[in-house]
Amino acid sequence: MGTRRGFLKTEKPPQGPLPGAPGENDIELPANGTMPRRPLGRTGVETSAIGLGGYHLGLASSDTEAMRIVHFAQDQGVTFFDNCWDYNDGKSEERLGRALAEGGRRAKAFVMTKLDGRTKAAAAQQLEQSLKRLKTDVIDLVQIHEVIRMNDAERVFAAGGVIETLVEAQKAGKLRFTGFTGHKSPAIHLHMLEVAKKNGYHFDTVQLPINVLDAHYESFEKNVVPVLQREGIAVLGMKPMGSGLILESGAVRADECLRYSLSAPTSVVITGCDTMGVLKQALQVAYTFKPLSPQERQALLARTTKAAAGGLFEQFKTTDRFDGTTQNPKWLETAQL
Fold first, then answer.
1. Do the beta carbons of residue 34 and residue 77 sit within 8 Å?
2. Residue 7: inside a domain
3. pTM (2 d.p.)
4. Per-residue pLDDT tens listing for the chain (337 residues)
5. For residues 55 and 43, what is the distance between their CA atoms, to the nearest angstrom?
């Protein structure tokens, strides 16, 4: 398994649950389990501490199974639903849209999606497609996806850039809040925040990797989270298990990964659940959650030091494997999947 950036450029992220993942009947949830809720930065909104990842929703075995996962998650207190314009060629948004269209479920959900377009025109077209697929007139949170290049910030805020689409759509009532995402380098996130400030713009949320290996290597938690806290920007933690790669290190269990990310100053920890068993695993951790003590955190970090070296199991930082807009550069310029 290589770590040189670009080495795995043509290889897709892991698809489906890992061997040994829990089955639907392996986990019995408590009858009175309560999902913790947390403030979403300074938005005035509270959301579930666990968010359902959109990419993995598109990997569920069928449309029916994806709908069952969404409904079960919502019935168990999950309110935050992640998605993206490009996930699984639009299938992820379509599945979420259909699932939430039933029985007034949309009104109880906080729906987020992401746009790849860097130009005003491309982003506007992508947004209209997302609204249609998600079967909604307003998306709660729209984020600029994959800020993974140092010049992305300049493109976003250039004349005719995507930020103009977000501002206009917000005024038109098509979206409530805005943010950006990225998984490559803390320096790129910090540059984006700096350019936004220079342009007098305040993001409501920022999505970034928060996991037990991140603390050791190119750490978003150490370098970016304090800035977000200072600015009142909601921290959306992602890749708590690195799409399963962190589990492959053998240094840490799934429940430990989730508990670590929930113990960080996150508003939401977004986790991919492509089966009911994996979803129940996340729900069980949330229901029984207690923050890591300083001693527990120190022991967990000590145990994962070797696995974290060089970003070997955080390939979203060290390879192009997870970079959808690198492998599909047209997504930055057009609304064609």
1. yes
2. no
3. 0.95
4. 333 333 334 477 777 777 778 999 999 998 888 999 999 999 999 999 999 999 999 999 999 999 999 999 999 999 999 999 999 999 999 999 999 999 999 999 999 999 999 999 999 999 999 999 999 999 999 999 999 999 999 999 999 999 999 999 999 999 999 999 999 999 999 999 999 999 999 999 999 999 999 999 999 999 999 999 999 999 999 999 998 999 999 999 999 999 999 999 999 999 999 999 999 999 999 999 999 999 999 999 999 999 999 999 999 999 999 999 999 999 999 999 9
5. 25
| Number of independent structural domains in the chain | 1
User: What residue numbers bound the domain in which 125 lies?
Assistant: 44-332
Distance between CA atoms of 311 and 43, rounded to whole angstroms? 34
Please tell me the distance from the alpha carbon of residue 57 to that of residue 92, in angstroms, as a whole number: 6
In contact, 286 and 255? CB cutoff 8 Å: no
Sequence-separated (6 or more) residues with CB below 8 Å from residue 252: 212, 246, 260, 300, 303, 304, 307
Token representation of residue 314: 């955080």
Q: What is the rounded distance in angstroms from the CA atom of residue 128 to the CA atom of residue 167?
A: 15
Does 26 map to a domain?
no
C-alpha pair distances (Å), 120 with each of 38, 49, 123, 162, 232: 33, 32, 5, 4, 27
Angle between helices 254-263 and 294-308 (to 10 degrees): 120
Q: Which two tokens stand for residue 20?
A: 């040994």
What is the distance in angstroms between the CA of the first residue and the CA of the last residue of the chain?
A: 29
Q: What is the CATH number of the domain that holds 141?
A: 3.20.20.100
Q: What is the rounded CA–CA span in Å between residue 142 and residue 120?
A: 14
Rounded Cα distance between 111 and 138, Å, is 9
Neighbours of 159 (CB within 10 A): 6
Residue 238 lies in a domain: yes
Q: Is 108 exposed, middle or buried (0-12, 13-18, 19+ CB in 10 A)?
A: exposed
87, part of any domain: yes
